[in-house]
Amino acid sequence: MTEVLWANLRAPELSELARRNAIVLVPVGSMEQHGPHLPVQVDSLLATEICIRAARRVREREPVVVAPTVWCGLAEHHMDFGGTMTLDFDTFRGVLRCICQSLVRQGFRRILLLNGHGGNVSALNVIAGDIGRELEAPVFAATYCYLAGTAQRYKDILEQQENVRHAGEAESSMVLALLPELVDRESMAHTQGTMTNMVGPSGAYRFRSFAELTETGVNGVPAVATAEKGELLLDAAAEELAETLLGDELW
Amino acid sequence: MTEVLWANLRAPELSELARRNAIVLVPVGSMEQHGPHLPVQVDSLLATEICIRAARRVREREPVVVAPTVWCGLAEHHMDFGGTMTLDFDTFRGVLRCICQSLVRQGFRRILLLNGHGGNVSALNVIAGDIGRELEAPVFAATYCYLAGTAQRYKDILEQQENVRHAGEAESSMVLALLPELVDRESMAHTQGTMTNMVGPSGAYRFRSFAELTETGVNGVPAVATAEKGELLLDAAAEELAETLLGDELW
Amino acid sequence: MTEVLWANLRAPELSELARRNAIVLVPVGSMEQHGPHLPVQVDSLLATEICIRAARRVREREPVVVAPTVWCGLAEHHMDFGGTMTLDFDTFRGVLRCICQSLVRQGFRRILLLNGHGGNVSALNVIAGDIGRELEAPVFAATYCYLAGTAQRYKDILEQQENVRHAGEAESSMVLALLPELVDRESMAHTQGTMTNMVGPSGAYRFRSFAELTETGVNGVPAVATAEKGELLLDAAAEELAETLLGDELW
Amino acid sequence: MTEVLWANLRAPELSELARRNAIVLVPVGSMEQHGPHLPVQVDSLLATEICIRAARRVREREPVVVAPTVWCGLAEHHMDFGGTMTLDFDTFRGVLRCICQSLVRQGFRRILLLNGHGGNVSALNVIAGDIGRELEAPVFAATYCYLAGTAQRYKDILEQQENVRHAGEAESSMVLALLPELVDRESMAHTQGTMTNMVGPSGAYRFRSFAELTETGVNGVPAVATAEKGELLLDAAAEELAETLLGDELW
Amino acid sequence: MTEVLWANLRAPELSELARRNAIVLVPVGSMEQHGPHLPVQVDSLLATEICIRAARRVREREPVVVAPTVWCGLAEHHMDFGGTMTLDFDTFRGVLRCICQSLVRQGFRRILLLNGHGGNVSALNVIAGDIGRELEAPVFAATYCYLAGTAQRYKDILEQQENVRHAGEAESSMVLALLPELVDRESMAHTQGTMTNMVGPSGAYRFRSFAELTETGVNGVPAVATAEKGELLLDAAAEELAETLLGDELW
Amino acid sequence: MTEVLWANLRAPELSELARRNAIVLVPVGSMEQHGPHLPVQVDSLLATEICIRAARRVREREPVVVAPTVWCGLAEHHMDFGGTMTLDFDTFRGVLRCICQSLVRQGFRRILLLNGHGGNVSALNVIAGDIGRELEAPVFAATYCYLAGTAQRYKDILEQQENVRHAGEAESSMVLALLPELVDRESMAHTQGTMTNMVGPSGAYRFRSFAELTETGVNGVPAVATAEKGELLLDAAAEELAETLLGDELW
């Protein structure tokens, strides 16, 4: 069985995976504006792709399956731009809770929510903690670009950014690698991004619309993106996620 | 602009669609066992495909866009089989409410939730009614196989069923037309389905696990499915949905 | 013990009925405008009366009791008219859940919610399903006019309608049979009703105030109502419900 | 218009009452064990009757209407006995909130919830306060036997009790006055009641099942009940309620 | 171990108290306007002080600990004045439920919520009842000034009031005894209070802002307050609470 | 007016502060085990003290007030040890929301939640974001030890830790500075702490009881704590917080 996508499998195959205590990767993304040059699916696309690539690396040593993508997250701060959808916290929690509960009831015990959207990070920590305790099963949350190894490898690959920023060099590169036909290269070349963080002075945080930070909806430098970098970035994240999943202490 | 998928569009394109008062089709499906021969994504796959085909028919006369698929619905009655995920009612309502609210806040006013899963029907009526009233926008719910014209056209195409049943002749045919490589033809040819309805004697309804009705998880006759019928069925539903969307009285 | 009304019984009698595994019928209605000629209690009155008549038919073969009537349901679509009260979905669910939970805790295991209001139908399916599963007891929902046998018998009795419509021939006849002094015959004779369904073209549903459909609040033809038809209709529904309750496969 | 019951009125009559700013009395009771001799509807019956009698006294000076009875309240402490139904707090609040909201949306502004059940008292204070503030309308809660005048008049009428107790002298007398055929006089004559309060030593309160206090489910002395006392008690409460409603400062 | 404050104890000491089945007193107050002369912490201060004094009386016979003070309660009716904070009912219930649940999970079984704020009384009855039943542990609620003995002793000590009123003789005296530096004696001497109850004519209750009753925010006669009376009042309440806790029938 | 504590102020003083648009600092802590040597109030104590010291630095340039401390937070991971209380997420959110709403309704517009407990961090980000947006007022969340300047100054002061850890060198030092009589120096000298982080390998997070990490409940090196370091640490945090509050861009 070489298929890793839950959606493509049949019920008896998934029952068999449960019996073998397969790892379930749940990609968690967003559907939100990514500047004038990238499609709104970016965060969901990248989280899914990294799960698939990690699953392919892992499956020879551990059974693994990639659940359908939770394509809507917490994107209130992007609502001032077009094309954005957002859940509220309670619904986001409800969705993740119902999915994990379904998995545990079907016999799966090893779950990792792989996140691709900055706005989901704090909420996922709260939610994964509560769900894991309630279901008495290890439910991990991780954001691909904050995995320690990824962070380092990304820094080495990127030219004008130190990390992943919204619709900037890293994300634009990865979309170029995966869905180049959906990138508007003209606007990618000319869009100026801001270079701020969402967090305020000295670590005090408050809600802030992304529109307060940037007119273009971009944070970072999309103009220097290339498909080649994108491939490297995706593989680096997948590699790091695979190592995490196979690590001694995780489960 | 010939792209109809929300996820593939960029923010400015979606803002433009909102300004043009585009129709938004939201495919609503499920992720649940569909017998030993079909992948678990069937209901989501079909709802999405029918939306896309209908959007292509409609877009010359009306701007239209297909939102990402709500791929998890109410499938508690399938939880005794493998591969099933389910939301609870409150979460399902929350998801649809947040999506519609995001759409209305972005400026869209014409929304239709196109459903492909029997277990969602009653809940969608409740939810679409409540959301539409709350948002003061017409939010329609429809299940493709219950659209009046579809029902009649399906009856004419099918050989051993009068309508769509779970993993039977109709659904198996449509999946053969779309994703033949995911169908296990061996088990499709030999699986016996039940021929019951979920509703009890004389219209009294209670919760009943699908496993009470059938050991195989199938309702209907998958063995007679063909890709040709599948194409006809998909087009019939898309045609009917397109006519509904363009009908005089809808919006 | 010939009394069938829960409210009229004493605690030890109800404990005895629980020990005998009595069927509990819960009438579920509404309190809403029914045109200028009928009192607002119609749906609650009729659901209750049909339960009582069915219980009298059943009680020689099965112990049975009729709970107090849930007289308020989902009537938002009638709020533009006078005299209407409505619950929201969550409260309606809460009421039915608490009642069924009380019954199950007292030892009752066979429950049927007998509905008399169109606006409750979808919600009752959702609710009865969820409650039954949660309480691990069969909790049925049925709407009297949709019971298969009732539908046919009603068609034969009615002159100008094919089925029950809001404040039309059928409902007016039944109220004439039960509470003639509360019917305003003058306005009954002259009120014109619409002849539409709440469901839109081709099965797409959205919320619609009843006032969009009719100025009078009436759907159907009240002018041809008679007490004689009313008696026949009530007995037909009671007969059909009794047969359902005594059917082989129900519990 | 001499009819005071909401349920018996027609929509235009209720619209007219709203226009005239009629007082709405909402009887709030319970459905719970009342010893071996009284039917389980006692608290609902009495609250309703007192509202009707008060309305008849009031209607010459003020328009007034009696809503259908909220027949289920908070009776968890009676669940150890047969025949009891209970709501949880949130559902009870939901029901009262939806009713009051419906009334206010229909144009009514003067609402009094008239309670007949001890277990509802604290909750009603919380709920009426919150609803009244939310709806920006005066929503009063009152328990008939705690109205100052009633308390005094009751004391004078009763022989062996100082106030209303559960299924004792006062309640048994009132049921004898209204529904004598539902009273089991044999057990009424012989049932020993406890004489305790639900509140513990020195005003510290905790949840306590009624079964901790009494085996018979009775608090007080039913044996001395008579229909004559019952009539006096009902009239005293109705008189007091009418005076309250007509008082200068209430609305 | 002579320390009675939970907050001042170390984890092993609290574990030991749980093992010894210690009584836990939870002071419940408010943070709200108390006229121009008293600090806003009055109700929390007094509930806490009375718990501490009672604990010191009790601890030789029973192990006892005073939890941190729930310093925010239901004070919506004081929001028209400055300095007031309020919870809504659901949050207030949530806080008390989480605290009691934490206590029970740590092994404590004897809990009393000692209230110092009139606006909390009804809610606490509802909440303590529900929590106690849910946790299957005796959870008592009591308001210090309504404890039977306190009421009598207070009457004897006070000159111009019969009981505790908002920011009047009793409360002002007790604050003078505890935190005299926070009392504005000038305004205390000259502020006129109202002498009304929050409850309306004849026991009918509705929400009423405190500003409807008094411009000064004071109910009672602060001018006659003295620290000496305050000491007597505090000791009387503590004495009564201690007797209640040691009473035969409480736990 | 030199008093900075809300609880100690009178209503008119707080109204005046609202009129002057004072900053409100809300200390948010926890009540949980802190090893065998520290009292359970540590996180609440330190958050409060740092607010007070910062307020004293700020008040000459900006009006400022310190709200009562939210002394209970999210401490589920400490429940396996004695003396711990915890809220669930929804209640924690409710408390902070009600407090901020009260503040905004009273006229305050500048709010900072100053947190002293690691287990609250993610939740506070979610909550402050949602509250700020709902109330349309800047509501900041900050954790004292993560303020950029604090982090650096702490590193310089501490000998055997790089940052604040649970009941280790930093926290023990600060409690020694404030409440030395509550520290058990014997156990402080001999307790071995773990040196792990709550976050798992490579940034994947799941719920983990603190008892999985350490038998003693301590993370860090309490033995090297001194009151002198404690003073320096408290002042460093207060200084940094004051600078943040007075920073150009905050409000």
Helices, strands, pairings?
The structure is a homohexamer.
Chain A: H1 11-19, E1 23-28, H2 42-58, E2 64-66, H3 89-105, E3 110-115, H4 121-135, E4 139-143, H5 148-157, H6 169-178, H7 185-190, H8 227-246
Parallel strand pairs in A: 1-2, 1-3, 3-4
Could you describe the 3D structure shown?
Six copies of one chain form a homohexamer. Chain A is an alpha/beta fold and 251 residues long. Chain A has a single domain (6-246), classed as 3-Layer(aba) Sandwich (Rossmann fold), CATH 3.40.50.10310. The first copy, chain A, is 41% helix and 8% strand. Chain A has eight helices and four strands; from the N terminus they run αβαβαβαβαααα. Chain A has a four-stranded parallel β-sheet. In chain A, β3 (110-115), α4 and β4 form a beta-alpha-beta unit. In chain A, α2 (42-58) packs across α8 (227-246), α5 runs antiparallel to α8 and α6 (169-178) crosses α8 (227-246). The radius of gyration of chain A is 18 Å and the shape is globular. The two termini of chain A are 24 Å apart. The mean pLDDT of chain A is 95.
Q: What are the main properties of this structure?
A:
homohexamer; 251 residues; alpha/beta; Rossmann fold; four-stranded parallel β-sheet; 8 helices; 41% helix; globular
Strand content of chain A: 5-15%
Mean pLDDT of chain A, to the nearest integer, reads: 95
- The structural class of chain A is alpha/beta
Which pair of chains forms the biggest interface, and how many residues does each contribute? A-B, 51 and 51 residues
CATH class category of chain A: Alpha Beta
Within the CATH hierarchy, at the fold level, what is the topology of chain A? Rossmann fold
Give the helix proportion of chain A (percent range). 40-55%
* Oligomerization status of the protein chains: homohexamer
The count of β-strands of chain A is: 4
Task: Count up the helices of chain A.
Answer: 8
Give the CATH architecture of chain A.
3-Layer(aba) Sandwich
Give the distance, in angstroms, between the N- and C-terminal Cα atoms of chain A: 24 Å
- Global morphology of chain A: globular
